[in-house]
## 1
Amino acid sequence: MTAVTPGKIADTATGQAGGAGPVHVAIIMDGNGRWAARRGLPRAEGHRRGVEALRRTVRAAAEQGLRYLTIYSFSSENWRRPQTEIAELFSLLRRFVRHDLESLSEQGVRVRIIGERGNLSDDIRALLEEAETRTAANQGLTLVVAFNYGSRAEIVEAARAMARDVAAGRLDPSAIDEAAMSARLHTAGIPDPDLIIRTSGEERLSNFLLWQAAYAEFLFMPILWPDFDGKALAEAIAVFRSRERRYGGLGAVSAGA
Ligand code: FPP
């Protein structure tokens, strides 16, 4: 496989120009609460069905040739939710890691976690580390779980790391470039997302992958996350393939190609 330069724009499924792609899809899994409310069910049921949608989507992502799937499972702003709902989301994460790690590993999935770990409990931190270490050698899809993640905090932390490196004489200020920043983000070594999907019809990034999204295509789908499946993913990929990515250059038509 083509080596990935941190922060480099990932262009195609093959790493070659002109391929079909996407290599990396990131998803804001939104609409669990509304899915439940429409059925007169508790919000927690929406989240539980959201985990089932996640299982389907991971399988489908590998089958449909993606190399990276990033999911926004708990944002640093989600702490504002009621304590009971936060507890439910944490317990779903625990169950997901405990029950699904084996099957993810059998599928060749490698798990990476991004987000702030400092303020998480020891057992959750240990669980996240276990998910990463137990799957580290897998060669299939990389599932990037954004947990307790906030993009601005990630960028601030990277800036702080660079300042420390400059102060210690390890980094020359003139050597600070996009690659230096990318290498200090939680996503270091992961190609930028080609496509970012948000379900439920909301059209916001909500502090998700702000730096990494520089050249991503966006797709806002009306489907609520618990209803998402391989068919919805295939539709999203088809829309992506129908778009022309120009990276600030001229498109084929404007350039007279
Ligand atoms: C948004 O729905 C979804 C979330 C805040 C969490 C997403 C979590 C899961 C799919 C399950 C957890 C998975 C893991 C691996 C921990 P919402 O509650 O904002 O829905 P609403 O906007 O309709 O209220």
## 2
Amino acid sequence: MIEKDWIDKGYIDAPVDKNIDLKSEIRKLCKEKNAVIMAHYYTEGVIQDVADFVGDSLALAQKAATTEADIIVMCGVHFMGETNKILCPNKKVLVPDLNATCSLAESCPADKFEKFVKEHPGYTVISYVNTTAATKAVTDVVVTSSNARQIVESLPKDEKIIFGPDQNLGNYINSITGRNMLLWNGACHIHEKFSVEKIIELKKLHPEAKVLAHPECKGAVLKLADVVGSTAALLKYAVNSEEKEFIVATESGILHEMKKSCPNKNFIPAPPNDSTCACNECNYMRMITLEKLYNTLKYEWPEIIVDEEVAIKAVKPIHKMLEISEKLGL
Ligand code: 13P
């Protein structure tokens, strides 16, 4: 029975027996229910460790599209659950806390974006995956930070393009492709916060360190970066590189997998400008806890529901992204 109190809260806070081994109970429930746990690199390390699959946004969508599980538990933010539900309408898609939203998705309300699109007829509309289903429904092709460059470059040079919602990613793609895409004015509250001054100070303290940055960072941070890429691309670089030290300018959850994959290398989180804290954590990703994950599997709630009409429209640009990515071997 789903209690009204949980519905109001958007997550289940039923008490969890402190004496049980949560990780093994979670794995047991997955087996019993033929459920798969997917986690983004920005979630807590304990969540990544109990998941069946950890990845960046593109890999998570690709995995969802092919899973044979009956239930997908998406440990990440709301739009990730929506993307999975749109790709798998007949599966139950759960997100342990419905309040885990995304500032980028919030910065692009579908009605305002649709108005903007209508004001610019003749433009191809590219939306970053960090958008709501309703925003994707007024989009021609979805991109992630893993494939944005290649998808933009797959369009004719003179194609008029609207790119939303991340202005930093849009500016970065414009700068590396020579395009002049019309940008929506949105941003990620975490990536906006990295301090250029503090990264410069860290570089002085660690002159050998390579700076790894996510393209959602501001241009001034990206100028300091040795490598710009998606979470998976930054991880891959760290694993394959001969270098031993890295300053990492993206949400600090990625350091978990970096440290795990490269125990002999040193990863330093780039600090934000607004606190004395050394790392930059997404409060929404941190809403996904082991207790909520356990209860989510046990009660099969909170479930992601996407309006059918919206889903029919939103699936097209997501499929387009997956098709182009497959063709490009991404
Ligand atoms: P990645 O696709 O690089 O994992 O980025 C996801 C994201 O939400 C960044 O804010």
